[in-house]
Amino acid sequence: MTTLQQEDQDIHADQIFGQWRQMWAALGVALPEVVMSQQS
Questions:
Q1: How far is CA 36 from CA 3, 4, 27, 31, in A?
Q2: The dihedral formed by the CA atoms of 28, 33, 34 and 36, expressed in degrees to the nearest 10
Q3: Mean per-residue pLDDT for 6-25?
Q4: Reported confidence tier of residue 30, pLDDT bands at 50, 70, 90
Q5: Spatial separation of the C-alpha atoms in residues 12 and 7, rounded to whole Å
Q6: Euclidean distance between CA atoms 19 and 16, whole angstroms
Q7: CA-to-CA distance for 37 and 20, rounded, in angstroms?
Q8: DSSP the chain
């Protein structure tokens, strides 16, 4: 019972992590330019 629940949590975490990675990948395209423009 606990192992099945743990697997569900792992799958759910993978989905959330995947979404975060996609979001950060999209941000990563624009973010460096914003940071560089603020520093200079």
A1: 47, 47, 14, 9
A2: 120
A3: 90
A4: low
A5: 9
A6: 5
A7: 25
A8: -HHHHHHHHHHHHHHHHHHHHHHHHHHHHHHHHHHHHHH-
Rounded-to-integer distance, Cα 1 and Cα 35, Å: 48
Distance CA 28, CA 21 (A): 10
Please state the pTM of the whole predicted model: 0.45
**How high is the pLDDT of residue 16?**
92
Q: Report how far apart, in Å, the C-alpha atoms of 38 and of each of 8, 16, 27, 30, 34 are.
A: 43, 31, 16, 13, 6
